[in-house]
Amino acid sequence: MSRRIALLSAALRSFRSISFVKTGNTLGNTIETAQFGCANGVVRTKVGYTGGSKLFPTYTSLGDHTETLELEYDPNCTTYKDLLKIFWKNHNPTAVHKAQYMSAIFYHNEDQKQLAEETREEHQKIVKRKIVTKILPANTFYVAEQYHQKYMLRQHPLLLNSLGLNDEELKKSRVAARLNGYVGGYGSIKSFEAEVDGLKLSNQQIEMVKEIIERRRF
């Protein structure tokens, strides 16, 4: 199956930039990174740092990088433009922030650049203040520390531990990415039930997820 990658700049739990890669791409602003976990067509997510010159940045030594969410998505199920729509709709692209939290789109080819610019122009027509989102070429993406990965899922240790994933597996897991979105409150029980067979969860895990989704409704 053909896949693409996207990077979103994050406040690790929120993002201000996003990157979608043809084998990558990138975009940006303030939204829970979990929001993309259960978005249609998203396969995997990672948070990290990109856009700067410092080699091997860390959360405590970030240099000039931007906190970013990397998305891997299936182009047979969603499009770069669809993901851009989520990006524009769910953050304030007119807010000015320092590099760590800035709104940005990191593109990996000219098609991505063009779509980013076109959708920025479209969104500018519906907001009063000037959009400050930067559209920049993507460069090296540095994966953030383990404790930042799948943050919302980590708030439910019983469910997380039941998956039996080590830290490296957690970063790469499609199931963990999808669950991170659902337990973060970004998917409905109906949507979860529609894909649950493909997630290969136990009955106990399914009930735990449903209970968490239901609780977050109130």
Care to describe what's here?
This protein folds into 2 domains: 16-143, Peptide Methionine Sulfoxide Reductase, Chain A (2-Layer Sandwich), CATH 3.30.1060; 149-216, no CATH class. It has 8 helices and 8 strands; from the N terminus they run E-E-E-E-E-H-E-H-E-E-H-H-H-H-H-H. It has helices at 80-89, 110-124, 151-154, 157-162, 167-172, 174-183, 189-199, 203-216; strands spanning 4-10, 15-21, 25-28, 42-50, 66-73, 104-107, 134-137, 142-143. The strands form 2 sheets. Strands 1, 2, 3, 4, 5 and 8 form a 6-stranded mixed beta sheet that branches. A two-stranded parallel sheet has the order 6-7. Strand 6, helix 2 and strand 7 form a beta-alpha-beta unit. Helix 1 (80-89) runs parallel beside helix 2. The longest helix has 15 residues, at 110-124. It is globular.
